[in-house]
Amino acid sequence: MGCIVYESSNGIARLTLNQPDKLNAMSYDMWLALADSIERAEADPAIRVMSLIGEGTKAFCAGADISQFQVKRNDPASVKAYEEAVSAAFNALLNANKPSIALIRGICFGGGLALALCCDIRLSDSTARFRIPAARLGLGYAHANIETMVSKIGLNAASDLLLSARIANAQEGLRLGLINQIFTEDFAKQAEDYLSEIATNAPLTLRAIKNSLRELSKPEARRDLASAHALVQACFDSADYQEGQAAFAAKRKPQFQGR
Predict the structure, then answer these.
(1) What is the dihedral angle through the alpha carbons of 68, 52, 88, 230, rounded to the nearest 10 degrees?
(2) DSSP conformation class of 182
(3) Do 122 and 168 touch, CB atoms closer than 8 A?
(4) How many helices (H) and strands (E) does the chain have?
(5) CA dist., res. 169 & res. 105, Å (int)
(6) Assign residue 56 a region: left if phi > 0, alpha if psi is -120 to 50, beta otherwise?
(7) Which of 117, 3, 122, 105 is CA-nearest to residue 51?
(8) What is the Cα–Cα distance from 147 to 145, expressed in whole angstroms?
(9) Distance CA 193, CA 181 (A)
(10) In the Cβ-directed half-sphere of 208, how many Cα atoms lie within 13 Å?
(11) In contact, 50 and 92? CB cutoff 8 Å
(12) What CA–CA distances, in Å, run from 126 to 71, 160, 169, 173, 181?
């Protein structure tokens, strides 16, 4: 039924969507495990950044594992439980205090694209393909997912992809804002270098930035600016701030401790 493989080293938590025989489609258990894995990374002070990747090179994620729907979504109670598991995974990514990076190769469809859009940054190779096929399947696409999509890529691009249900390649994904960069050479190495660069940055600053980005995604009336200001001030009050200044003056790499 697939699984989420959790590995960590050098400040990076690596979460792998692992069901390659089904193009890493998300089973019910995988939705649950993904939320748990994100919580695990959030609780580990050694982790500075999370990456999300699909097993193999054919797919990041083809969406939900539809083959389970006859069993896992066949009555009101099971439908509710399934939707709660999916929402928990999405919300865990959206509300995480640590940065999340989606590393996309091959197919990134439906719920897989929704997962990627919940991450802060999306990087791909040239094989990436993007699609929201809901209109071809006759299913209702969740308002929360559309809201996230519009907030990340804008109303016009979201309207195009949702209403046409067409496939966009990597270059168009870059143009539409679905991804931030395309790595065309050694994807694994370039992605690791990018993650490592984030992992060496100041954790308190990363958290303050993440909080401000999250608040800016909300309607203005609902933004908690006090929390944003408090986290910024905590950066200036920290030992890491002193370390950053000392490292800059000495022309060396800073060694941040998150305090």
Answers:
(1) 180
(2) E
(3) no
(4) 12, 10
(5) 11
(6) left
(7) 122
(8) 5
(9) 13
(10) 19
(11) no
(12) 36, 21, 8, 10, 10
Q: Specify the pTM.
A: 0.93
**Distance of alpha carbon 213 from its chain centroid, rounded?**
14
Amino acid at 185: E
Least Cα distance to 105 among 121, 120, 127 occurs for 127
SS3 content of the chain, % helix, strand, coil (to 5): 55, 15, 30
Per-residue pLDDT of the chain (259 residues; tens, 9 = 90+): 799 999 999 999 999 999 999 999 999 999 999 999 999 999 999 999 999 999 999 999 999 888 777 776 667 887 888 889 999 999 999 999 999 999 999 999 999 999 999 999 999 999 999 999 999 988 888 898 999 999 999 999 999 999 999 999 999 999 999 999 999 889 999 999 999 999 999 999 999 999 999 888 888 888 899 999 999 999 999 999 999 999 999 999 999 998 9
